[in-house]
Amino acid sequence: MTSEGRGTPVPARLNLVLLVSAMTACAGCLWLASHGETWAVRLVAAVVFSFVNNTVFSLLHEATHGVLHPSRRVNDGLGRVAATLFPTSFTMQRAFHLNHHRHNRTRLEQFDYFRPGDNRLLKCAQWYSILSGLYWVFVPVGAVAFALVPGLLHRLRGTGTRYGEQTGADAYLGRLEDAPGSVIRWEVLLAAGVQGGLAVALDLSVMGWALCYAAFAVNWSGLQYADHAWSPLHVRDGAWDLRVAAPVRWMFLNYHYHRAHHRHPHVPWLYLGRYVDPNVPRPSFLRVWLSMWLGPRPLPETVESRVLPHEAPLTVAMEER
């Protein structure tokens, strides 16, 4: 792992302004989706929400890497606030995301390829749940389930089974066994309190809330794997610096520069553009996303040997500081 870019200053004030502004805009979109006079207005509000809540998520992503604010205490506090609009637990999100850096493009994260012995129905169900936005539902539901019934994870992990390996459930849910359960529970309560407070204060309708989060789920979920689909099977290099319209990239805080992020996870979003390699192919987000609808592909024999799992522990070790 290169140390290039380490020590890059964190844009703390800008991040705080963006977090407050984006969360305020999200509240406005939720209100408009609930009280708009026409369906056209409500739908536009939901689409706008799907983008501005991705700004909030991108700031949450910064917090998981400790680069939302230079103070660890403030960083984690702001991360917990940002997580309430997902909604999820910040501690759970950090555990899962750093695990993603550990296992990126290994056998546990090759959802785009059929491997020998894979259950094809399960693979397709997982794949299209990502594309449809259903993947998002598992995050808040899973956080609540863990908070209420933590023992449920043992039954869902599928430890030692093909299911547990193919879905990644064993590796990801296993990370929560060492996570601070009491912290996760109060973070879930915080998220529930914020969501409930918004519903009461803004007199939100179930339909308005659902429209906004359905749009966000599709927008967020699709990008989570479009920036990895068909990329090299390499823990650090297995991602794309996707091409997308500049205003969209700005709203996602350069999240589309995902290869640069995986190679330099300690670099704040504002400076990721400096680390985009012009010599590496940069497919368009739309092209990759459309190709994903054709479904997973057979694993090419020529790429089987390109996964380098021995690099993964180093990646996570540098992030868990």
From TrEMBL:
PROSITE patterns registered for this protein in UniProt:
PROKAR_LIPOPROTEIN
Please name the Pfam families in this protein's record.
Answer: FA_desaturase (PF00487)
Keyword list (alphabetical) reads: Membrane, Transmembrane, Transmembrane helix
N-terminal signal peptide? none
Query: This chain belongs to which protein, by name?
Result: Fatty acid desaturase
TM regions (residue ranges): 12-33, 40-60, 133-153
Q: Where is the Fatty acid desaturase domain?
A: 38-275
**Domain of life from the UniProt record:** Bacteria
ATP-binding recorded as keyword = no
